[in-house]
Write a structure and sequence with these properties.
The structure is a homodimer of 303-residue chains. Helices cover 35% and strands 25% of the residues of chain A. The first copy, chain A, has 303 residues and is α/β, with parallel strands linked by helices. In chain A, β2 and β3 form a beta hairpin.
């Protein structure tokens, strides 16, 4: 089943202890689709400026990403410049230039409107709400959010939460939104506002999925070389939603596997700059990484 | 099979966001034995001053802890005073008075010397080495360590590592010891120095067990109320070693289950002050918590 994502398509300049990358593909919709396309066809809605190297999106198109909803506006593309030091869990933002993204108003092409799975990347919650008026009863809608929306668009964000099935956010955002330090309490607080499912991402410390009274946890995969953590959260969301769209159902068993696919995609994303590694994965490598996750947490029943 | 622990027996005064406790039972050997005795008989070697409320150890004795190796020395007992704020992963030490513990020289009673499982709590590595000269070929020796030993007793600590089978330490200590920020690299560095098995404890973020080329991970159990994190690491070690001593073997399957029992014990320890909760557990509650761990990480194979 097809999967629609609305989010940013940007150019990132990143410095890590292991190297530098300038003006490489970035943005939530880019990482999300580069990840999800390994599992299911993806439809992207976003905006870039007239300076965007759209040719560089071709490898994504070849892997099943449809950019019919990518608007090209007059002006500069969204650019982010950041740095990581040894604690790769913490990004230091050096520059953000929103460019054409500051006037983004998502227009969902007619052929995308019946997508059964919809992911609303971390854009303004008013835009996320607007997308919901343009789609036809999706089977599952998930949204991401960010500290700016929690601080400055709280009323709209709470309205959005009433209308989505699932939320993905990181531990800091969950605490900020709920004003609960304890993540279990934070998740319950969020579920009371509408979503049946809350995923709290903890970066290198893994991710929790909360649904009703059950909790599922997936560790981050222990890698010797975490090269660049940028986009790991969006790659996680892409793997999660991509897996659900691929199997087409949202049972507890599928949701758990979806979190593992999300974690696997997050672990690939950080192995190289930008979306490089996500574009190299084949089905065998993905299955092998999922198997590694199983061995990482598996324990047998009592003898 | 019996399990010998050598470590501190102290009095803790603790303040958390949820309450205060004054002069309650603490110390690594105390938490370790309160945890392990739920699984196997435990033999304690340590020292207390003549002011120690030894009567309060009776509930431990009733649960199978043998204090024949607990020396009573003239002077004050080891006291620790600490505080936790909202981030319960970080203890703030307000006062430490070593008292009689500063002259501790472990003497292993004759009847303890053939214990097949030995745990060396985080005392001076010279004393940990000395214990090894007093025991008869144990099946498995594990040691803990601490930042002071890593900084100031490095040579002795490296000698100790050559002689133990397993090490438990927290993430910060693993990084400090190995000078590797990456925990997988840190574990490999440590294994090169001798131990076949390294457990890196990450507090609320769970624990890794490294053995040869395999990695096992257990999350910390998500609790709505983490009341007092003091002793969680020692309770973890007690559950880990207690499970191994109970089943008497050290196969990969047993080791994985042992980490889960350790995590379960750590999760009980933090539910109340001191060793209170560890003394209430029965076999049913323990089995139920282990089942919760299974559900927390379980995912089914592809349909």
């Amino acid at each position: 089943m097809s999967l629609l994502v609305v989010g940013s398509v940007a150019l990132d300049s990143v410095e890590t202890p292991f190297g530098k990358a300038d003006e490489v593909l970035g943005g939530s919709a880019t990482f999300f689709s580069a990840s999800a396309c390994n599992l299911t066809p993806v439809q992207v809605v976003g905006v870039v400026g007239d300076d965007y190297p759209v040719d560089k999106l071709k490898p994504l198109e070849k892997r099943g990403v449809d950019f019919a909803g990518l608007e090209r506006a007059k002006g500069r593309s969204f650019r982010w410049r950041g740095r990581y030091r040894h604690d790769l869990n913490v990004a230091e933002t050096l520059e953000t230039h929103l460019g054409v993204f500051s006037n983004f108003s998502p227009k969902i092409p007619a052929q995308f409107r019946n997508a059964p799975f919809v992911f609303l990347g971390n854009i303004d919650p008013r835009l996320q709400l607007d997308v919901l008026t343009q789609v036809d009863k999706p089977k599952l809608v998930a949204c991401d959010t960010m500290n700016f929306s929690i601080e400055s668009r709280r009323t709209d964000l709470l309205k959005l939460l009433e209308r989505v099935d699932a939320v993905t956010l990181n531990d800091g955002e969950a605490r900020q939104l709920s004003e609960c330090y304890n993540l279990l309490k934070a998740a319950k607080w969020i579920m009371k506002r509408g979503p049946k499912l809350v995923i709290i991402k903890k970066g290198e410390h893994g991710a929790f999925m909360f649904t009703g009274d059950t909790v599922f946890f997936a560790p981050a995969f222990p890698l010797e070389e975490v090269f660049d953590p940028t986009g790991a959260g969006d790659a996680f969301a892409g793997g999660f939603m991509g897996y659900l769209a691929k199997c087409g159902d949202v049972t507890d068993a599928s949701l758990r596997r979806a979190v593992i696919y999300g974690s696997a995609m997050g672990s690939f994303a950080v192995e190289k700059f930008s979306i490089e590694r996500l574009l190299e994965i084949d089905a065998k490598q993905l299955a092998s990484r999922v198997g590694d996750f199983r061995r990482l947490v598996a324990f047998e029943d009592e003898l």
